[in-house]
Amino acid sequence: MTDAPLIAILDDEPEIRRLLSAALEEAGFRTTSFARATEFEAALRRIQPEACLIDLGLPDRDGLALVHRLARDSGAAIIIISGRAQVQDRVTGLELGADDYIIKPFEPAEVVARIRARLRKPQRDAGAGRQQIRFAGWLADFDRYSLTSPEGAQTPISHAEAEVLRMFLDNPRRLISRAQMLETLGGTAGESFDRAMDVRISRLRTKLGEDPKNPRLIKTIYGAGYIFLAEIA
Questions:
Q1: Which Gene3D superfamilies does the UniProt entry name for this protein (predicted)?
Q2: If residue 109 lies in a helix (H) or strand (E), which one and from where to where?
Q3: Which of 139, 181, 144, 226 is nearest to 217 (CA)?
């Protein structure tokens, strides 16, 4: 079990923490649980979970602000588990960097399946096993979750941004439709997924120094999808 992925659970309800821990450990994961954001953030200085399950209704911190910071600074997959069921809540959570959004009440088996989907490594062809890939003078490091520019400047990328970039690097110069994105990256079809993809791609373009009016690397084919135009080294 020492090599099993570690899942961090942040929820102020003891029964939710117990339910999630039991389901995840039965499925072969390791878990660690926290009731308060301050305890969770202190623990992140010592541990590196593969995924974090975050409740938004925390007693000591705004859950959305925490999600945003994690997406910016951590390579962990971030899954929100919340009773907030409005579409705008889901869209906001995904825009701030969450990889997925599960509404309470939930089935533990669904949470396990969503985590497995988020942690599943995509099948690769010539790039199998490569965690550092060069393209157009850039270096993408998927172990460190970083981009290094042709001039040597390093920029962190979130887990969600890394997933999208990896998808592009695995499929250079090919049209990638919304349906293919949904199949590759997982999630639930609909407005919130489409909006989240648009936000992640916009952030990637910014980090790659793209002109939003005339991007060179990630081209939008309106009504069809996206094409990544860089040559892969």
A1: 3.40.50.2300, 6.10.250.690, Winged helix-like DNA-binding domain superfamily/Winged helix DNA-binding domain
A2: helix 108-119
A3: 226
Name the percent of the chain lying above pLDDT 70. 91
Report the chain's C-alpha Rg in angstroms: 18
Three-state DSSP state, 200: helix
pLDDT tens-digit readout, 143-174: 888 899 999 999 988 877 888 999 999 999 99
What DSSP assignment string belongs to 46-105? T---SEEEE-SB-SSSBHHHHHHHHHHH--SEEEEEES---HHHHHHHHHTT-SEEEESS
Give the global pTM: 0.68
Dihedral sign, Cα of residue 112, residue 132, residue 149, residue 185? negative
19 phi, psi to nearest 5 deg? -60, -45
Tokens 């099948």 label which residue?
123
